Amino acid sequence: MCLFGDFRYRAQILFKKIFGLLKIPDTTSLQLKISNTHTINMNENRSIERKRFCISLFVSLIFIVALWCIKIFEIVEGISLYRLGVFPRQISGLPGIIFSPLIHSDFNHLISNSLSLLFLLIGLLYFYRDLSYKVILFIWITSGLMVWVGARDSYHIGASGLIYGLASFLFFSGVVRHDQRLMAISLIVVFFYGGLIWGILPVYPAISWEYHLFGGISGLIAAILFRNQGPPRKVWSWEQEEDENTPENL
Length: 250
Known about the structure:
CATH class: Mainly Alpha
Order of helices and strands: HHHHHHHHH
CATH superfamily: Rhomboid-like
Strand content: under 5%
Helix content: 55-70%
Number of domains: 1
Shape: globular
Low-confidence stretches: none
Structural class: mainly alpha
CATH architecture: Up-down Bundle
Number of helices: 9
């Protein structure tokens, strides 16, 4: 009886182990875990994107506020800083390459530039986060040098050159990269800022159309120069399916 009882006890333990290994998983619980993980990832991505946008907005606003502070300082002190602009082919005009985008002739000039500059800066900082500061510096210096070399003999001031450079970069960068997401930004730029094309024509003598033209050229050069840097091109599922169905893979 003792032997039989011991055998029955061992058999029960063995059956429990076998049935434990063969236990059918709870698919409902598994699906719930996957769904929860997906929801958590989506929430994390949204939080990251929100943070990126807030940083882009904050940095852009800081720059716009700085422009307004400079203009208010001019009014309060009763001075004009236009001599800090670019004066072509004069050694004394070289510092204007750095300072001219910060100087505006009056509040109307500043107001007309502020909103466009704000939107374009946000777009650049948000979509080209790691590359944005290189692009701004390149457009800032290159357009200023071009104005110093090839513009009329006059003081050239204002952030218009930077605006044209950013708009040009955002448009051509999406086209050059063949990235559908960035090409959507290109279309938005054309929709909102397509009228900027008239600003590169010598229609109004009081406007530095040269800064507009050279800013646009600088943006195009930057788009080509930095085409392999910045956000990687996203490969969509349908593109992967096309690659798998090419003759080489069949």
